[in-house]
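Write out the 3D structure for:
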Amino acid sequence: MKAEKVWRLGSMGDMQILPGSRHRPPMKKPMWIIVLVLFVCVFLICAYIYPPQSSSACYVFSSKGCKGFVDWLPPMPAREYTDEEIASRVVIKDILNSPAIVSKNSKVAFMFLSPGSLPFERLWDKFFQGHEGKFSVYVHASKTKPVHVSRYFVNRDIRSDQVIWGKISMVDAERRLLANALQDTDNQQFVLLSDSCVPLYDFDYIYNYLMYTNISFVDCFKDPGPHGNGRYSDRMLPEVEVKDFRKGAQWFAMKRQHAIIVMADNLYYSKFRSYCQPGLEGKNCIADEHYLPTFFQMVDPGGIANWSLTHVDWSERKWHPKSYRAQDVTYELLKNITV
């Protein structure tokens, strides 16, 4: 009995020399694991939203490059189109998928956008001579009634309206020219020209070059600077997104199907009419430099060449391209332009 009592007393004594609390001391949290997991999550989210563009960065993610990494990620949710977008895209898709009209007498429509008389009309007269039946001429004179010296230009003036540089009226004039030229079902190619344009090749070369192509020559490129994407307005959303906003010279050579969808478009055109103009929101958006490039980027990017057949020199970095004077026009200049 004493032994048992001693044992109990000993037990009680042992308990008295232990720490006062019987609770297990808190374990140190593995903070480095939490930080690592958070870092990986943030890294993957950023890589999903801003995928790497360079090949070296791509191989960090996968030995197959960017494509392997992108395929591993879930697809981005598609934006829901508005009723107007659905209707517009249905019409455009139907026009593009329709077989082209075959004409026994295919013609090129030369459409001149000019403030008045054409200073190089006599040169164009020489260019057209002997090729009657293969071309049509249309003149949009926005300021004064032109005086014509060539029989090919007589009675070829269309109803014109005032054109103000940088404003949507420039696009309106282009569409007015297209509408008039489309009335002739033989017109298969539509070339927009200014009063300063001159032909650099003979008629047969240009005619065959245009007739034997299945694309349109619309200048189109992405400019991330202030005079490109910097002109974009969020008010164009949701139909026109900044990722589709493009820039290009206004001069084009366009096949008939593309000319028709330009005339059929009202949705995207109305966005540029309202939100692409000089001085809006402190920006100088020039509609004729952005409407057609952006429009084709959205509806038929594979159907255009992304460059124009018209030579324009912007090397002086001014609001307008370089003007060539008589002393500038040399054999070397013409050779460099046409090569």
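The CA atoms of residues 200 and 220 lie 22 Å apart.
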